[in-house]
Amino acid sequence: MLANFTFSISVALPIFLIMLSGFILKEKGIITASFTKTANFIVFYIALPVKLFNSVSQSSVRNNFDLKFILFTIAGTCLSVILVTIFSLLFVKDKSKTGSFIHGAFRGNFVYIGFSLLENVMGSIPVKASLIVAFVVPVYNILGVLILILSNVERNSEQNKIKHALKNIITNPFIVAIFFGIIASLLKIKLPVLIQNTFSYFDLMATPLALLAIGATFQLDKLFVDILPAVLATILKLFILPTLAVLAGSFLAFSADELFLVYILFGVPSAISSYIISSAMGGDENLAASIVMMTTLFSVISLTLFVFVFKSFALV
């Protein structure tokens, strides 16, 4: 048992130590707002797309494409929104906060934090994880926009907001990278060694730079704003939703690796983009920021606990 607990700590805690380093460096003035903005740009538009392209293009998409699993992740995401919406109707009294509550409680930081944990546990990013991004990220964006439009009292220019969201989905660098990765895999295209080596450096840079940038965006003063709905969203995001998802995956006889991937998809902390979108679309940005901060901090406990359970049952 001690060995399993040590393993769990060793794969979960380093992720948060890197984020903590980003926060401390920001507080010391070493990492500036300008650096954080630049780092986020590099991660979002270059490093992570390269990582996704490498993951997909260097493996057999034909052998790893699993329609059942992909449909499960899409259905699970939609059902999680329904469940969170029910909780919001029961426990969130201020209806102006509903959109941010639902968005923060269902949308996870799968690519940034999820990929980091997958690398720590499995040694690399499974191709199936990269393929999921191509399907789940658009669902995240569509549901997020619809939720905020339907719950927002300021409903001006909804059509423009939907068009803008659809444009962002089509031009999302993750989706574009996976699309070209699929083509390269199906056509068995091998890049020149010079380009492969260059891409490998961006691949290695993606995870630590992303975690540093996340830490540098932390604002602890936002942590205790709207604390009661933020606590409920945290419990839903980190414990209830991933537990239900893993149980459903077990019922469908998914493999151990697939179950762990299901946990990562549904159990990672809320994505920073939930705060960004809530702020841009007239949602309650203070609640959105509080949910992001709280889920990220308490995910140190939840990730360690779930990895420990998986390890104890020899599932990782």
TrEMBL record:
Q: Where in the cell is it found?
A: Cell membrane
**Which residue spans traverse the membrane?**
6-26, 38-57, 69-92, 104-125, 131-153, 165-187, 230-254, 260-277, 289-310
Q: Which Gene3D superfamilies match?
A: 1.20.1530.20
Q: Name one Pfam family in it.
A: Mem_trans
Q: What membrane topology does the UniProt entry give?
A: Multi-pass membrane protein
An example of a Gene Ontology BP annotation on this entry? transmembrane transport
- Report the InterPro entries cross-referenced here: Mem_transp_PIN-like (IPR004776), Na+/solute_symporter_sf (IPR038770)
Which keywords label this protein?
A: Cell membrane, Membrane, Transmembrane, Transmembrane helix, Transport
Primary location:
membrane
Report the GO terms under cellular component.
plasma membrane
Protein family per UniProt: Belongs to the auxin efflux carrier (TC 2.A.69) family.
Report the protein name in the record: AEC family transporter
Q: Which organism is it from?
A: Halanaerobium salsuginis
